Structure to design on (128 residues):
């Protein structure tokens, strides 16, 4: 049976904007929980993998979270594997160096939050 997350992602790929809004709300909740657990605020949300290709999802996530979203790379798992192998062979440095290399070589798109934060709080409250 298909899990809920994959089902919603499939509907977003099919162009269902209500699904993108629902995923953005899920991202809002996950970011809030991660900030609570880390006991510190975040200044950006990163979306990698297939979701990074969906401009609507990235825009709505920025709006819902009230934080900028950096989207990309779309092939994060494959790139991570290459970078870990390169690091093991001494070809790249630490994690910060690996991130700088990705930022220089992969297309990343930044989405700034816009819109009505109160509307997102209200939508979240309706789903609670």
């Amino acid at each position: 049976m298909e899990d809920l997350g994959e089902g919603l992602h499939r509907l977003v790929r099919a162009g269902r904007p209500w699904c993108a809004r629902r995923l953005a709300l899920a991202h809002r909740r996950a970011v809030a929980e991660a900030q609570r657990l880390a006991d510190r605020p975040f200044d950006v949300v990163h979306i990698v993998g297939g979701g990074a290709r969906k401009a609507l999802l990235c825009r709505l996530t920025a709006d819902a979270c009230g934080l900028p979203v950096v989207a990309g790379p779309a092939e994060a798992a494959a790139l991570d594997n290459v970078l870990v192998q390169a690091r093991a062979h001494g070809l790249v440095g630490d994690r910060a160096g690996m991130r700088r290399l990705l930022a220089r070589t992969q297309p990343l798109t930044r989405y700034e939050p816009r819109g009505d934060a109160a509307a997102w709080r209200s939508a979240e409250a309706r789903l609670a």
Observations:
- The chain has a mean pLDDT of 86.
- The domain at 4-72+107-127 is CATH 3.30.420.40 (Nucleotidyltransferase; domain 5).
- Helices lie at 4-13, 17-38, 55-65, 76-88, 95-105, 117-127.
